[in-house]
From TrEMBL:
Entry similarity comment: Belongs to the purine nucleoside phosphorylase YfiH/LACC1 family.
Listed name of the protein: Purine nucleoside phosphorylase
Coiled coil: none
Catalysed reaction, written as an equation: adenosine + phosphate = alpha-D-ribose 1-phosphate + adenine; adenosine + H2O + H(+) = inosine + NH4(+); inosine + phosphate = alpha-D-ribose 1-phosphate + hypoxanthine; S-methyl-5'-thioadenosine + phosphate = 5-(methylsulfanyl)-alpha-D-ribose 1-phosphate + adenine
Alphabetized UniProt keyword annotations: Hydrolase, Metal-binding, Transferase, Zinc
Gene Ontology MF terms in the entry: copper ion binding; hydrolase activity; S-methyl-5-thioadenosine phosphorylase activity
Superkingdom of the source species: Bacteria
InterPro entries with a match to the protein in the record: Cu_polyphenol_OxRdtase (IPR003730), Cu_polyphenol_OxRdtase_sf (IPR038371), Cytotoxic_necrot_fac-like_cat (IPR011324)
Amino acid sequence: MVRKVLEFITPDWTMPDHIQAYTTTRKGGISPSPYDSLNLANHVNDTAENVEKNRKTLATALKLPTSPLWLQQTHSTEVVNSQDWYEGIEADAIYCNQINHVCAIMTADCLPLLLSNESGTEVAAIHAGWRGLADGIIEKTIAQFDDAAEHIYAWLGPAIGPEKFEVGRDVYETFLSHDPMAEVAFQATDDSHFLADIYQLARLRLRQHGISRLSGGHYCTMTDASRFFSYRRDGETGRMVSLIWISNK
């Protein structure tokens, strides 16, 4: 199979040159349908050989200084420091203040959230599905930073859009029980179903904790099938990866 050219999305923020941050699209790998083509997840039914080749292609394309620190994501609020990482660790966010530790989280509708302080000495990557978001994954990750929240930038990567993310009353009530202001992120479709804006829910949490320098949040993984994997759209599918690291450039 001929590899297509990889495509990446980069955060629309102003960061020092030594901060490297990217989100992959589905384009550029070798995996067959329904993982076509740059599937980077080894927990779906794609072959281990395909995933390994795709990861090597990614490393070459981005000239990664080291292998990404892959997480076993479980929709938890567990945050790991990159210095404490080990293969197979279960966590849904990773914080780093070390050079060339490549932080990575995988998504296919959930929100990938990248953080960096203004001086580029601290970064983090968050897998923010609705459960982790409601339970405080953002707050726990921010707490890892030494720098003040007003010096932290946040970029909201490709996730399911507000016109497609239908949830039940349980999700609606979970968020409102934490903050009644979260109601602005929900639109009722009937008595028991709502359209949820995961971007708005994340922005509310970030702003409540002092982070106001926000960008991104204008994608929809479910409707943009040519660029993005979407679990809700396809069921069996691949995963994109969002990466951030402090380089020694």
